[in-house]
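Deviations from the work plan: none for this task. Representative record:
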Amino acid sequence: MSLTPSLDRLIHQLQKLPGVGPKNAQRLAIFMFKKGADFSRDLSEAIVEMASSVRYCGVCFGICESDVCEICSNNLRDHGKICVVEKPTDVFHIEATGQYNGVYHVLNGLISPLEYLTIDKLNIRSLVSKLNADDCTVGEIVFALPPKVEGDATMALIKKMIKRPFEISRLAQGIPTGCEIEHIDSMTLARALNNRHQMDADKKAVNPAPGDSSQGVHQTKLIQ
Amino acid sequence: MSLTPSLDRLIHQLQKLPGVGPKNAQRLAIFMFKKGADFSRDLSEAIVEMASSVRYCGVCFGICESDVCEICSNNLRDHGKICVVEKPTDVFHIEATGQYNGVYHVLNGLISPLEYLTIDKLNIRSLVSKLNADDCTVGEIVFALPPKVEGDATMALIKKMIKRPFEISRLAQGIPTGCEIEHIDSMTLARALNNRHQMDADKKAVNPAPGDSSQGVHQTKLIQ
């Protein structure tokens, strides 16, 4: 169905967004028109401002609005500890916990041959050369990758490429907060059983002692 | 979760769109960032152009990019026949059938006291004064309103407010094309049975004869 030329153009653009089909794009375009010129101006200005301001951090490949992100340029953070994540937004999710004071490295994906995500499409070589450099001051690597085949493959590959020994940990796997035991899949439940820990450990994880280098990341399995 | 200031601002704006929650807004914003500046520029330009170009037609309240829409300003259309629809997009859906050559009047909603949609919030008085004017040349009204309580109430109200007799019809109700009889609700099936028509009528409706004034709108019930 063809509407007016400028509505059609907007619908065409909106359809390029993920999860927005033809009907939904038409609904959004008509909604914008009905909300009036102020609404459309605010939205388009927000898009333009985002596109001109946001960029990848030159050090960790997270997202920020300057050349180096606030975390990488903060001398109060522990630069000897590097947390490897899949996506830029993972950084913000981990920051929201308030339980980590090191720096990050964003891979921008996981190894997945089926999706043509190979080593050269991800920020893996930059991480490895950072870790293999002679003047590297990193002593600890925390893998915060999704617990699935692609995450495990990526982790294994990086481990294989680094030449020096590091203290390497991965996020604890187990049951999420607030859920019923009966709703947990058996794989997760099996891991939660195998990785069970002494009840005193919880206290330490949630309220880490000042200067405690583990800072609440459960180092239940050191995967050297 | 707070990202960078300009991403947060964009997410805030995107959440105002219908059906876009916080997670979806964040996903859309990150998608736009990843697609690069060209994508965001095209989208924001399309929004701005739409907001500055599209307006309501001064005659029928449909949407167009000039003061009077192409249909209202087209002398080849039958201005003696007016089709009353709920939404501006309904005009384009009916036009897509190629079965109607009259003009339109868009109510911009249906009477619904529960949603505070009263007579003064809709384009009802303008329709009625057009129809009650001494120099009115309209002879036929086609109601293409949704077959539900609000549509019926709106139709009844308009019929009550018009003073002269008109040939009034409403869209045929029955089973939609391509569906299985077992999937039709009983109310629709009952109407399809009551409004059944001679099989020759179909031929006439789909291929109206040149100069045929009914132009395929099934006038199964004239509701005077």
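Helices of chain A lie at 5-14, 22-35, 37-53, 88-97, 124-132, 149-161, 186-194, 200-206.
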